[in-house]
Write a structure and sequence with these properties.
alpha/beta, Rossmann fold, 6-stranded mixed sheet, 4-stranded antiparallel sheet
């Protein structure tokens, strides 16, 4: 059995709207093993993006423990959490979140600006990340000069460039056609299988979920079913 890289214990998430308390996540436990590729599925409002944000350190639980890579992140200050994210989590979003004024290589370099790496070291990491996603020949292109699939590959390279513990993907193929989506999912699968990356992906798409090693289904803030892909 692989070591758990993500462990949630008794985690809840509530919001207050006026005098009304809204329970987004019921108390839940979850363990994700090193090297897993987990697809989080469920209807809109089921809590899957909230759960993803807790795992990635973008949000903190109302109660319970969140451990990632041996670090209990639910107790970190906002500043410490931001520092932790920059070293340990790579994020991939549905709409790429690239800066239009920057080239592909400069977009990929952004997470490294928070590190102590030299300019030459950063350039080497960026070149490697773009090579992994098959875009070494597009390094100088700006997002407006790239297709949707290429833009998402740049976003994945940016997520990879600091060699994070965990890749967190929120609907990474939601804005792409089927063929391009399959290419991006194939890339994520390669990163998981050949580069050993642990990936947690939120998706509405059953076909996307088939690329993962495990599927986890949520409804009304609770985990309702987990299945393994063969």
């Amino acid at each position: 059995m692989s070591e758990a890289i993500v462990s949630l214990r008794g985690v809840t998430k509530n919001y207050t709207r006026g005098k009304q308390k809204i329970e987004v996540l019921q108390p839940l436990d979850l363990s994700i093993s090193q090297g897993d590729f987990l697809a989080l599925m469920g209807p809109s409002g089921s809590g899957k993006t909230t759960l993803l944000n807790l795992i990635g350190g973008l949000d903190q639980p109302s109660s319970g423990e969140v451990n990632v890579g041996g670090q209990r992140i639910d107790q970190l200050s906002s500043r410490a959490l931001a520092q932790w994210r920059s070293h340990h989590v790579g994020f991939v979003f549905q709409f790429y979140n690239l800066l239009g004024v920057l080239s592909a290589e400069k977009n990929v370099e952004l997470p490294l600006l928070l590190t102590s790496l030299s300019k030459a070291q950063r350039a080497k990491h960026v070149a490697t990340a773009l090579e992994i996603v098959g875009l070494a020949d597009r390094a100088k292109h700006k997002p407006s000069e790239l297709s949707g699939g290429q833009a998402q590959r740049v976003a994945i390279a940016r997520a990879l460039v600091a060699d994070p513990t965990l890749l967190v993907c929120d609907e990474p193929t939601g804005d792409l056609d089927r063929k391009t989506a399959d290419e991006i999912l194939g890339l994520l699968q390669t990163l998981n299988r050949e580069h050993g990356k642990t990936i947690v992906m939120v998706t509405h798409d059953p076909k996307a979920a088939e690329y993962a090693t495990h599927q986890l289904h949520m409804d009304k803030g609770s985990l309702i079913e987990q299945s393994a892909n063969t």
